[in-house]
Amino acid sequence: MTLRFTLSFLALASSCVIAADGNKDGFKDTPIIPNTKWHIHDPDRPLPKVVTPGEFSVQEKAGTAPNDAKILFDGTDLKGWKSGESDAKWKVENGYFEVVSGTGTLRTREQFGPDVQLHIEWQAPPAKNSGQARGNSGVFFFDRYEIQILDTFENLTYADGHAGALYSQTPPLANAVRKPGEWNVYDIVFNGPRFDKEGKIETPAFATVFVNGVLVQNHTELIGDTVFRTASKWEAHGEKGFISLQDHGNPMRFRNVWIRELQPVDSGK
Prior knowledge:
By secondary structure, the chain is mainly β. It has one helix spanning 6-12; strands at residues 49-50, 70-73, 81-83, 86-87, 91-93, 96-98, 106-108, 115-123, 137-141, 145-149, 174-175, 183-191, 194-195, 201-203, 206-211, 214-221, 243-245, 253-261. It has a single domain, classed as Exo-inulinase, domain 1 (Jelly Rolls). The protein has one helix and 18 strands. The strands form four sheets. Strands 2, 5, 6, 8, 12, 15, 16 and 18 form an eight-stranded antiparallel beta sheet that branches.
């Protein structure tokens, strides 16, 4: 769920529409997503097919980063992150860091972009709830474009809120999430948007996303920011931005987080 509307979701949960298939998370009173026939968080939008990912060694231990990557978490501390303007308040132990509910979203101290490759491994706690209340977090680029993190293993929710979705816009091509307690791997290539001197959009953002080695977003175009129940729009911002992880109240765990800034072939960098 998007960073800025978590509280709104809790307040509006009682107004959700229950679809015939039992999906209690969807809404039909939201705007239509451009170039589709679907409402934002539409309960009738087809869900991604379930795909069992191949085996990864990351269940035994965290992976390693390329030698040109910027390490955002090395298993020992959160010195590269902050909560608001304060030091990061999430818990670090056993080579991972964990959401401490109520301490707020985690944000990198450094800005990156406009084009990056991000790797992150995450684990959801044992399932207690369902829908968007189960294993929920998100990874944000520029504090406004969210790739959804959610425990969607045998968990019904609206299609554009599935793990690997461009939240509120485009569902993933497949649901390749492992069961709670197992580690999941996201590899994301994010191409930031470009704006002209007047702040108008020239080139939209694009995202390519692999979940556990399965392609779920194939250079998918974004249509603006990713906002809960609200039409997306473009707002001009700088070429570099923070990477953020959402505190949605669930004790999600993360490890082996690294990023590479991508340069043109002939840039000499």
